[in-house]
Every structure is written in C-alpha cells, then in structure tokens.
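User: Fold this; tokens only.

Assistant: Input:
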Amino acid sequence: MDKVFHEAGTRGSSQLDWLDSKHSFSFADYYCPERIHFGALRVLNDDVVKAGMGFGTHSHQNMEIISIPLKGALKHKDSAGHSELIKVNDVQVMTAGKGIMHSEYNASETEEVHFLQVWIIPEKEGLEPSYDQRSFPEVNENGELQLLVAPKSSQHNALKINQNAYVFRAKVASGNTLEYTISGNANGVYVFVLNGELTVDGEVLRPRDGVGVNGVHSLEIIGIVNSDFLIFEVPMH
C-alpha cells in the first residue's frame, strides 16, 4: 500500500486582493515535486473569491474541470455559449478537450463565494468541449455515498467525465464507520475533508486535510466527530 498525507496547513497558496486560493497540488506559482498530482487527480484548489470579483476569460485544454460551490454562487460563461449560475449543492463539469474559453465570477456584490476547483486528467486528448451541471440533494449523515461524477460509460445518475474516475460526497457521524470499496485495481483513492474530523485507515484527518491511498481494495473511514468529506477515485497510471 502507498499513502500520501497532505495536511491543510502545508498546501500551497495564491494570495491576491480578490482571491485566497489553497492548492493541494502544484499550481500556478506553487511547485512541489512530491505534489504534482495523485494519479489522474491533477488539481484540487480551495478558492475564496471576494464579492463581485473573479477569474476573467481564460483558456483550458485537455482537462476535465469540476467546480463545487461550498458557499455562495458562481457565474460561469464560456465560448460554447453557456451562461450559468452554480450554487451550493450544484456541481459543474466541463470538458475542456481541444480548447475552450471561460470565466468564473462571484455572483454576489456583497458576499464571498467559496468553491473547490478540481481538475482530472482525461483518458484522451483532443475531445470536443462540453458542459454539464446538476443540483444534488443535501447529504445525510448515515454513511451513504452520494455519487457526483462518474465515467462516461457509467449508468449512474451522475455527471459524466471522460475518465475512469469517480467523485463522491459523504457524511459520517461520530463513531460511525463507512467502508469504501475501490472499483478498479488500477485506481487509487484520495479523501479530502470539508468539515469535521475522521480517520482513513487509521490516519487522522481534520478540515482540508487530504490523504491518498493506492494499492488497496477498500478503505475504512471512521467519524471522530460528525464529518463531511469528498472521495476521489482515480486511475493511478
């Protein structure tokens, strides 16, 4: 079994007058050779954007980009003609493929927006760009896994991406155990804590800590207190 542990306070950061961004993996001016990616999981950014501000129009290629608002709402516009509002409990997936331009702004003129930006390396390059968005109900605390993102071939009611990868959101109550079974032998799992405190195979994680595990068939996740977290299952090669 291979394991990496990323404590919240060791993440990279980008500080601008309108943006506070924390990077679990190398991004922008933050470079750490031990944190380039975890398998196909390339970027996990924890972004807080001031009221009325945001990311101006810029380009992406050959990446599956997932946005998960945690507080507030984002205004999205892209060169394919999409203009959308992404709110709490919404998840957005964009296939950048052979190239797309887009912008993301805080939809509020008075409140901050807080969201996660996730990049997953696709199976193939040069795909046609695409966009999808869906609202998911609030996760309960009985240990049920809520599937947000799944492969194109999946029959689950989830947003689809062009990779054999899965993104789940889950809550586990204090003292309860959630057993996660990995779907493919070539996949690893990265757990990222939003709120609370839990253990992943004995490793204690607190808010914004992440742990990646490769070479196992399942993971045991135990709530120390009531916890809210994400699971990223991704190919390792």
